[in-house]
Amino acid sequence: MTHQHDGELVVFLIGMTINKPWRPDLWLPTARAMGPMIKELVRDPELGLLGYEQSISSRGPVLIQYWSSLEKLYAYASAQDAEHRPAWAKFNRRAAKANGVVGIWHETFLVDKAESVYNATPLMGLAKATELVPVTRNSARERIGLDTSRKATQAV
Hints:
- The protein has five helices and six strands.
- The chain is α+β, with helices and mostly antiparallel strands.
- The strands form two sheets. Strands 3-4-2-5 form a four-stranded antiparallel β-sheet. Strands 1-6 form a two-stranded antiparallel ribbon.
- Helix 1 (24-43) packs antiparallel against helix 3.
- It is elongated.
């Protein structure tokens, strides 16, 4: 299986680094702040979140978010009446008092082309955020649109 999506696609990675694990009093509020934002985004698809996956890295939690447009991502981040702005303000106030205990990072990717394959997995990632469809091209190069000269039965 693979994913299918037409239109703009943004992948937004956001995470938290727990720099002083012995201070949960200072990093736990930051960890808890993401839940209300995700609930708000899931409740209202017009805000632009297509889907998300949660993970834990060696430094802390990471969310992989899929957005329908860069403008909707930026609009949500700056909306005065959304969960993000007050959470960001609280984080900055806490960080000023306890510099270096917890960090926040994000990376934003405007995706021109994307390739995926899912074999014996639950619905996840881009397929969960967009649409799960059968693979019609067997090579990754073909699925992403880089090599149309190969036969569809040839796999990488």
